[in-house]
Amino acid sequence: MGQFLQGATMTLLLLCTSVLAGCIEGPTVNSGIGDTTEEELALPDWDIGDQWLYTFVTPQFGEDSARLVVAEKDNESGNYRLGISSKEEAQRHAVINHNPFLGRVTMDGLSVYEEGDPQPVFNFPWNVGDSWGFTLFGQEWTAETDSIYNGVVEVRASSDDGHTLTYSFSGRDGFIDSLVWSDDQGVEQLRMELTQTKTDYEGDVYFYRARDLLDSVYENNENDISDSFLDSGHPDGTDWDVLVWYIDLDISGGGSGTLSLKDHQGASPLTRAWGSGASEKGSIGTIPSISGDYSLTVTLRGGDSSLHFKVAGGIFSQWTL
Q1: Is 106 in contact with 124 (CB distance < 8 Å)?
Q2: Pick from 97, 99, 125: which is nearest to 112 by CA?
Q3: Total number of domains constituting the chain
């Protein structure tokens, strides 16, 4: 009997010791949210050459990809500058405008700029339940940190217009992991997915600081279609380096089409002619920027013929890392 009590006492002591040891050692940092660390919840410090490869999907333009690269770190202005590793992709994003994370990003919160003002899309240090507001994609958002797990923060946001925005920030990758923006009908307007993270980029990086000048869709018409836009430079008074154009076109069988763009001096920097069944998807190019009025003449024949034509003014930047 004495031996039994002694054995039971030893077992109890071992159990207590184990429990106490666990209490003394304590849980890992931020228990309840996986193995997330305090560093992964804090504002990351980017270095020149940090890079993230993303896939972008939009209903208007389908799927494309872009490698975002930290090209400049300006302590005086308090901004990073993010560019793209492909000049053609830089032109595409200048005129399509579906990547808000290019160009200037503040160093004190990774805020992105919309209409010249920094917008706090992120809310460092992350805490579940925190809420805040910002403007993005022309919408006023109310956001809340929904959850945190294994270094990834999930955020949900809604706008007064009924749009929804869900995105995740990876503390381990130092940037967005994924983002989905849906309109008030539930239609996805943008899906953004991270596919690769690397450092120490070497090569050229490009960026066009851009603003839309014309964005129109033209359809079959028996008469010539006329349109125009004004090239007056950036609102801050800086002249555009170039105008970036985008064409998305389908000509139905038996149809035809033409496009002629003229500047105020009468020059025609862009002309096109299409025959029956022609298709031109996502073409991108640049023309000189000449301050003043531009006139556009379009002809489209054929029942289902259509043309989506966009022009944006662009101020060009290039870095060699």
Answers
A1: no
A2: 99
A3: 2
Encode pLDDT of 229-256 as tens digits.
Answer: 999 988 888 999 999 999 999 999 999 9
Phi, psi of 74 (to 5 degrees): -105, 100
Which residue type, as a one-letter code, is found at position 225?
I
Q: Is residue 144 part of a domain?
A: yes
Separation of alpha carbons 174 and 105, rounded Å: 13
Q: Are 67 and 51 in contact (CB under 8 A)?
A: yes
**Domain-terminating residue out of 154, 184, 202:** 202
231's CB contacts (< 8 A; 6+ apart) are 213, 240, 243, 263, 289, 290, 291, 292, 293, 294, 313
Query: Are 310 and 254 contained in the same domain?
Result: yes
Structure pTM?
Answer: 0.81
The H helix count followed by the E strand count for the chain is 3, 20
CB atoms within 10 A of CB 210: 25
The whole-angstrom separation of Cα 211 and Cα 243 is 10
> Which of 202, 230, 247 is a domain's end point?
202
Sheet holding 256-262, edge to edge: 221-231, 292-301, 256-262, 270-274
Residue whose tokens read 């980029």 = 201
Gap between the Cα atoms of 286 and 289, Å rounded: 9
Residue 30, pLDDT > 80, answer: no
pLDDT (average), residues 18-23: 39
pLDDT (0 to 100) of residue 159? 97
Q: Domain limits at 228?
A: 209-316
Q: Name the maximum alpha-carbon separation found in the chain.
A: 112
Average pLDDT value for residue range 263-285 = 93
104 and 128 assigned to the same domain: yes
Sequence-distant (≥ 6) Cβ neighbours of residue 5 within 8 angstroms? none
Q: How far apart are CA 300 and CA 216, in angstroms?
A: 14
Q: Which two tokens stand for residue 216?
A: 């129109």
Q: Are residues 190 and 97 in the same domain?
A: yes
Write the CATH number for 186: 2.50.20
